[in-house]
# Entry
Amino acid sequence: VSYEFGEFCPQNLDVVISNHSTNRVSVFIDYENIHIGLERKQFTVKPQTIIQAIRAAIRNQGDVTSIKAYADFDLLARGYRLNIQRTLALLGVDSCYRPNIGLKNCADMQIADDIRTVIENDSCPEVIVIVSGDRDFYPVIRTIKNKGIKVVILSLKDCLSQQLVQQVNDVYFLDDYFVKNDYSK
# Structure
C-alpha cells in the first residue's frame, strides 16, 4: 500500500486500539505549535491529517466530547490557499483565533484559561489531552492533576519539554502517524 506524503499512516492504529473506556475526554490543540513543528520536520501539513492523527492517537482514552484548536490561523494559512478554521469546523473541531503578538504566543494562555474553566465545571471530563509539547503548560497540568484528572500529552518528537513528561499520565507522539516528505518545499 502506498500513502501520499504527509498522509495519515494507518498501520500504527493497532498500537492505539485497546480497551475502550467510557471516560469523557476534552482535547486542547496548540494548533500553531503542531502545524509549525510538522512544517519544520518536512511533513505535509493538512488540517484533516492532523485531526485524524490526533483522534487515532487518543482513541483508547475514552469518548471525545470536545476538541478545540487554537492558533493565529491567518498566519498559518499564508502560502497554503486554505481556510484552516473552516476545514477544522467541517471536521467537528472548534477553533479559537488568537493572533500571535510579538514573541509570545497568546494561544498558550487561552488554552490554559479554557482548561481551568473546563475543570471547574461540575461535569468536567476524566481526561484532558493537551496537543503541544510546550513547557508553558506545566502550571495548568499541575492544576489538572490536583483535581484528580488524567492528563495526556500529544506532541512531536524533539518538541516535548521533559518537564511535562514527568507530570503527565501518558505521552504520545504524532510523528508516528505521518509519512515524511522526500522533497523540500
User: Anything to note?
Assistant: The two ends are 25 Å apart (CA to CA). Strands lie at 24-30, 63-71, 94-97, 127-131, 150-155, 170-173.
